[in-house]
Design a protein that fits this description.
Shape: globular
Helix content: under 10%
CATH class of the largest domain: Mainly Beta
Number of helices: 3
Distance between the termini: 57 Å
Largest sheet: 6 strands, antiparallel
Strand order of the largest sheet: 7-6-3-2-36-37
Bound molecules: 2-acetamido-2-deoxy-beta-D-glucopyranose
CATH architecture of the largest domain: 7 Propeller
Length: 553
């Protein structure tokens, strides 16, 4: 990595000379990767909790960041100062999931039951519910992770998924009871809720059927090569067509899935499921190779009776990827980033690990997917730089309130391992991926109410740079859940477009909020204004009452 950044710096004076010698206009700004600093723990799980802070969790292990005389495994990454504040976490958050409740409290769900040698502070985490209350301090002063030993999951869960639903509570899905090295060999084949809706977990035929490669099921839901719609109120599973061509898309064959942007008036849901691998699941880990090609397949389906009857439409990414991330841009495009072109999640399990990694051939160049383009023309990486840093197993990515992407992590090792001389050591460098609009005058949302009710028209003051102030400009207003990132997928991420107009003088934006919590589950949201693909900084709001989700009794 060092020679690369050195040559970049030595090129800068040359570029400056060329630019000053040339009378032509400066080139339009492009996408840029920028290394921001060192996170001290692996950014294994990442969730944006405020305009300036990303909450990170790692495995409780031997990370360099210290707290109270032992290695930390939680922290708040500051997007403004590019540094990290360690957080005291009691239980092991390794391969936990999480989401933010309707009242703004982040809940980290499940984790690993074991400790790690040399870090005696750790308590078992597979039944844990860790709470991080809304944090108003821009630097996270006084913000802590709270763990009540009496507040636990019904079933122990390592590798579960969790997402906020229409009533503001979390649906918690699957996982396994104990640690296993590749397949789900001790399944928690059930659903439960936080706060609880009943005192026993709901068994799931789907999670039984999709064994053994069904860890971290993606919610609409997809696990292995199977998909369902789960009706939370009726507790019924409706079977949808399998992902085509035998591609399995959940750990250890990690693909990624995303709900495409929802638009008024119908908010018709469409899902996109990309990457993963085709494997013979009767074989054992030692029979697999780190050179096993991942899939480039992307399957897309409209989740209506007609769409389901039509089935999956198959498309292809520009390269094969496993352990990838799919992320919304506020203009409705999808960013494809992170991952590897061969191999699997995990470490030291396949016959020919690379360093300790089960995966190889890091996919370094992101691409953009344009949902409305014609089939076959939706993917492009024109003008996209290479990240220069492999982001494979245990890496994360998230859109930030500033409108750029936070990218961190990668650790296909047993604990942190900074030994030199092997491929894919523990990666602590944090990068941003900055879209071109970060380098030009941007529209601004000048103020926003703290809370927004469903189904109402809202007017807010804005400013629009002259370069974009035209009546025929394309104005988009998106209401976004930035989601929770881990293991190459992004649970809870959602983009709802809102009908919007700007006033003739360009000083007022008027938009209509979504009709109800089934279109946007009540809870924190970030609103972005995009004019001709130039996006403002986001404004964080509370969508709905901000009340706590319902509890039993
Ligand atoms: C982060 O950087 C800011 C600005 O330099 C500084 O005030 C703050 O103390 C730093 N925080 C940590 C945890 O290093
Ligand atoms: C899904 O996987 C199962 C088990 O490996 C296989 O029998 C089935 O044919 C696959 N479905 C498709 C559409 O490839
Ligand atoms: C799978 O691995 C086992 C031992 O790890 C070996 O005995 C067997 O021959 C392998 N099978 C295949 C198909 O490679
Ligand atoms: C991971 O490393 C720890 C500490 O060195 C060791 O005790 C443990 O057995 C290792 N686990 C695996 C699965 O390699
Ligand atoms: C780090 O990984 C390398 C390569 O597998 C191995 O030789 C070394 O023992 C590991 N170090 C630690 C501290 O686990
Ligand atoms: C949000 O609700 C959860 C679950 O009932 C509760 O534990 C938490 O303290 C609440 N947070 C706030 C800010 O009210």
């Amino acid at each position: 990595m060092r020679p690369l950044s050195k040559s970049k710096f030595s090129l800068l004076p040359l570029l400056a000379t060329l630019a000053s010698a040339s009378p032509s206009a400066p080139a339009a700004p492009g996408w840029q990767f920028s290394v921001k600093g060192n996170s001290g723990i692996v950014a294994l799980e990442a969730v944006v909790v405020s305009p300036t802070l990303v909450l990170l969790f790692d495995r409780a292990q031997n990370d360099p960041l210290q707290i109270d005389g032992h290695p930390a495994w939680g922290g708040l990454w500051n997007l403004e100062h590019n540094n990290i504040t360690a957080l005291e976490v009691v239980t092991n958050s390794w391969c936990a999931s999480g989401a933010i409740l309707s009242n703004g409290t982040m809940a980290s769900i499940g984790g690993d039951q074991t400790g790690f040698p040399g870090n005696p502070a750790i308590k078992p985490g597979n039944q844990a519910i860790r709470l991080f209350e809304p944090c108003t301090s821009p630097v996270g002063a006084g913000c802590t992770v709270f763990e009540d030993p009496n507040l636990v999951l019904i079933e122990p869960r390592w590798y579960p998924s969790s997402t906020r639903i229409f009533d503001g509570s979390l649906l918690i899905v699957g996982g396994m009871h104990e640690q296993a090295h590749f397949y789900n060999t001790d399944p928690a084949a059930s659903f439960e809720f936080f706060p609880r809706k009943e005192q026993t977990a709901r068994p799931s035929a789907f999670l039984e059927r999709s064994l053994p490669a069904n860890l971290f099921p993606r919610v609409f839901m997809v696990a292995n090569n199977q998909t369902i719609i789960y009706d939370v109120e009726a507790d019924t599973e409706t079977i949808l067509p399998d992902i085509p061509n035998g591609v399995s898309v959940t750990a250890p064959t990690d693909g990624s899935a995303i709900l495409l942007p929802l638009s008024p008036p119908d908010y018709t849901p469409e899902v996109l499921v990309c990457g993963g691998s085709v494997i013979d699941q009767t074989l054992q880990p030692g029979n697999f190779s780190s050179q096993h090609p991942a899939s480039s397949q992307c399957a897309r389906m409209t989740i209506t009776p007609e769409g389901i009857a039509k089935g999956w439409e198959v498309d292809y990414m520009l390269e094969a990827r496993t352990l990838l991330e799919l992320l919304h841009l506020p203009n409705g495009q999808i960013l494809v980033t992170n991952g590897a072109s061969t191999g699997f999640s995990g470490w030291n399990a396949v016959q020919d690990t690379v360093g300790n990694s089960n995966a190889d051939h890091a996919a370094l160049v992101p691409s953009l997917y344009t949902p409305a383009a014609a089939l076959g023309q939706r993917f492009s990486n024109a003008g996209m730089p290479s990240s220069g840093i492999p982001r494979m197993y245990h890496a994360t990515a998230s859109l930030t309130v500033q409108g750029n992407f936070f990218i961190g992590g990668s650790n296909p090792n047993n604990g942190s391992n900074f030994t030199t001389g092997f491929e894919f050591p523990t990666e602590l460098r944090i990068q941003t991926l900055d879209p071109p609009f970060m380098f030009v005058p941007r529209p601004r949302i000048l103020s926003m109410p703290e809370k927004l009710a469903f189904g109402t028209r809202v007017s807010v003051p804005i400013s629009i740079p002259n370069s974009l102030n035209r009546r025929d400009a394309n104005v988009q207003v998106s209401l976004m859940d930035l989601g929770f990132s881990t293991h190459g997928f992004h649970v809870g991420a959602r983009l709802v477009f809102m009908d919007a107009t700007t006033s003739n003088n360009g000083k007022t934006l008027s938009f209509v909020t979504p009709p109800n919590g089934r279109v946007y589950p009540p809870g924190p949201a970030t609103i972005f204004l995009t004019i001709d693909d130039v996006t403002s900084e986001g404004a964080m709001v509370m969508m709905g009452s901000g009340n706590s989700p319902p509890t039993l009794e």
